[in-house]
Design goal:
The protein has a 5-stranded mixed sheet with strand order 2-1-3-4-5, with helices on both faces. It has a single domain, classed as Response regulator (Rossmann fold, 3-Layer(aba) Sandwich), CATH 3.40.50.2300. It starts with a strand and ends in a 9-residue tail after the last helix. The longest helix is centred in the first third of the chain and has 11 residues. With about 120 residues, the chain is an alpha/beta fold. Strand 4 and strand 5 form a beta hairpin. The chain is elongated. It is about 30% helix and about 25% strand.
Length: about 120
């Protein structure tokens, strides 16, 4: 069984310790790192490649810019933002929308597709 890899990056030390205590005894979860401040998060994510990042946002009602950056760079990762003051949490993930168009099977069709201007095939 592959373990769920988690990076814990909650600023208040007490909050971080509570999160770690909650997941410490779970046999399917592995804590791959701890970030004590926001400046460390990107470097630790790059190094550890966690499946989940648990953070405490400064403004729980708004998505922190760092989360958008991280999800854009690591779309496989999911983020759980826990706001102790409001007794709430928000779960963030990236969604890849895959689209398709038929492409004309010709030199023109191939080159148009490569240049991001696919010609539709007449059906």
């Amino acid at each position: 069984m592959q373990k769920i890899r988690v990076l814990v990056a909650n600023r208040p030390r007490l909050m971080r310790e509570l999160v770690l205590a909650t997941i410490a005894d779970q046999p399917d979860i592995e804590v791959v790192g701890e970030a004590q401040n926001e400046a460390e998060i990107t470097e630790i994510v790059e190094r550890t490649r966690p499946d989940y990042l648990i953070v405490a946002p400064e403004q729980p009602e708004a998505r922190p810019g760092l989360l958008g950056f991280l999800l854009g760079r690591y779309p496989h990762m999911k983020i759980l933002a826990l706001a102790a003051e409001q007794n709430s949490g928000t779960f963030y993930w990236a969604f890849v929308d895959i689209r398709s168009k038929p492409v004309e099977s010709s030199e023109h069709g191939i080159l148009s597709a490569l240049r991001n201007r696919p010609e539709l095939v007449e059906i």
